[in-house]
Amino acid sequence: MSHTVEILSVGTELLLGGIVNSDAQALSRELSGLGLNVLYHSVVGDNPERVKAAAELARSRADVLVTTGGLGPTCDDLTKQALAEAFGKKLVFHPECAQNIRCFFARVGREMTENNLQQAWLPEGCHVLDNAWGTAPGCAFEAEGTYVVMLPGPPSECLPMFRERALPWLARLSEGVIRSRTLRVFGAGESAVESLLRERMNELENPTLAPYAKEGEVELRITAKAPTAEEADALIAPVEREVRALLGELVYGADVSGLAQVALDGLRNRGLTLGTAESCTGGFIAKRITDVPGAASVFKGGVVSYHCEVKAGVLGVSQALLDEKSAVCAEVAREMAQGARKVLGCDLAVSSTGVAGPDPDDRGNPVGLVYTALAAPDGCWVKKLNLASLSARRDRTRNLAVNHALDMVRRWLEGLDPAGMDAAGADD
Amino acid sequence: MSHTVEILSVGTELLLGGIVNSDAQALSRELSGLGLNVLYHSVVGDNPERVKAAAELARSRADVLVTTGGLGPTCDDLTKQALAEAFGKKLVFHPECAQNIRCFFARVGREMTENNLQQAWLPEGCHVLDNAWGTAPGCAFEAEGTYVVMLPGPPSECLPMFRERALPWLARLSEGVIRSRTLRVFGAGESAVESLLRERMNELENPTLAPYAKEGEVELRITAKAPTAEEADALIAPVEREVRALLGELVYGADVSGLAQVALDGLRNRGLTLGTAESCTGGFIAKRITDVPGAASVFKGGVVSYHCEVKAGVLGVSQALLDEKSAVCAEVAREMAQGARKVLGCDLAVSSTGVAGPDPDDRGNPVGLVYTALAAPDGCWVKKLNLASLSARRDRTRNLAVNHALDMVRRWLEGLDPAGMDAAGADD
Fold this sequence. Notes:
By secondary structure, the first copy, chain A, is an alpha/beta fold. Chain A has helices at 12-16, 22-33, 48-61, 78-86, 95-108, 155-170, 190-203, 229-247, 259-270, 284-290, 308-313, 319-325, 330-344, 394-413, and strands spanning 4-10, 37-44, 64-68, 91-93, 121-123, 127-129, 138-143, 146-151, 177-186, 208-214, 217-226, 251-254, 274-278, 299-304, 348-354, 369-376, 379-386. The first copy, chain A, has a six-stranded mixed β-sheet with strand order 2-1-3-8-7-6, sandwiched between helices. In chain A, strands 14-13-15-16-17 form a five-stranded mixed β-sheet, sandwiched between helices. Chain A has a four-stranded antiparallel β-sheet with strand order 10-11-9-12.
């Protein structure tokens, strides 16, 4: 019987809509990955009575309570006070926490005001979760059968605190070791992937197999529980083989950050460089590539040829072709990629040209019609995409076009037809 | 006494962490803007008992309940069933809804399966919220003093449904008319803006003045309530003047979508074109510009000169300069912008060069050191930025650099010194 979890987030800013509750999302993924069953999220403002009532409600309907926010000096350590009351605990001064807070300020070269030391008051008997990413320490304790973990609110502190500090403490709740592996899938929508795998997903218990839709992609997470890491990995391996056999070239990586990372790693291993030539994606391909730290070892640069005169003048696309066929056609995509290879002096180049919307172009090409091309030393390939959908949005169309362009590089690296495969977008 | 609100989101996907609860954020802003007091967010999975229990809890602690998700055929209209039970209502068939659903499918050219018609069953006596952005209609009703609004989950449907359909119905809860105006502020952190305005924010009751931090920006929303729109606007105007007088050139617009929009609109009005030359932002400036529909009337294109040979070869930056000073210096930023003007044939060009991190560059330049430049017909300006912060993140550094580059265009358009002003980033 797996443990049930409530995530309680404290912060008036969340209720005003100033920020989105990304902590709840990130922690939900982590906790689900541990095999725990997240049943509730709740958010209350910076109000001691409501925080206390929410904690009491949570303990009545879940056996693990994870809180985020309301720590730290600016909110008077609201969450700690309220939870200490709800669970009948006293707050006591932890000198070693005070010392850590002093060290943190010394390390970042800022002066510490005295109110920061208030953060060193934590529930008696708790396990302290030291904060290396900010000042407010978290804590964890068990009280009458409820496991409580308190984390700071800023996402840049909350997630590392969970992974590095809370997770080892929570491991007690899952007997044995939990391991997971995430397969990344591009080129089919979630519902298509699900319909291929539904039966197996329902059958499997250990490991479990679960899909997560991301815009234009699907992640498949295989999670196994076993006495040791080796045994867990041994449970995962045959399911991974099975999924790969079913989905074939749709699987582009395992435990990777995304298509850009896979393309960059593959090119780096082969000592090859990359460039871009973008029209409808308007710099988005280059942006996605340079989101990856260390992209400079592979990515030389790109040309955003939004106007036709830049396509002709900088990339050398034929003016006659542009006049005759307009910018949205396979030939222009091809000449853009080939031009980028030459102008930028790179081994491979990808290009995009199409109609991002919201309106059709002046030649009547529909929103979502996009051509992506890949120019490589051994040839040039063009893919025609129809990215229109029920909820056609400019950002979605552009994002999908970027994915397709990057996937062409990935497929070339794997020796597959870069323009192969059905070019359907993800489903809605 | 203002009404209190709970937002209840239904969806197992939220509890698994597959998606973030952006509906709750968007609705919180809208509801707060109406003068309603959002006290709770809660999330439960696709489970009829838990949805019903959550609805009963919500009615006990708030007088307005807004639900998102759990409508539509794939989830068996879970939320409608559970709420109908919780509020003792029957579901009845609404033929006009069935007709709308049929029309929607005809309009988008897809075949309708019969299970879609199940969506036409809604609580008896409810006010139907017709869905022009998807298939599942929403509804609104009052039951024993609780006002209930049910909206679909997909963000592309939820927010327009709220604004276009639910808002007129909810208007009864706020006596008179509520109007708001949002001033956009760039160049100072939230805490600096707050400390300038704190006293006034606390004093003001109608209109209210509230800050919202966005990454690298601050929004200030002035909200007034009055019997008529004219009277509300008349209450807003003097507060807007007061804020503008206090913050001066930090205010870059009112009721606009962002810096890119302001820069593009200003250039379009003057008949001028824009180009980009990017190193550390790697296409992100061009991406932000082309996020704006209609950017093509102003934006000609850009060069992403990630490698120095592209800076020299395509943009014409002096090789001797690159050899001597490396790519991260004011002179290179200047030559990049000037080169882009020439190569792209545009009136204005902005550039960026710097260290996005996570590591310092090979000349020892620290993470967060960025130069942005603006080349215009009447001169060229360079801004040196130190975007380092406690939580230095590559995406944050790059995003701030983009904002600074776009703000140089905005300042030039307003006749201000484009490189003027303290180049401090937003605070953490």
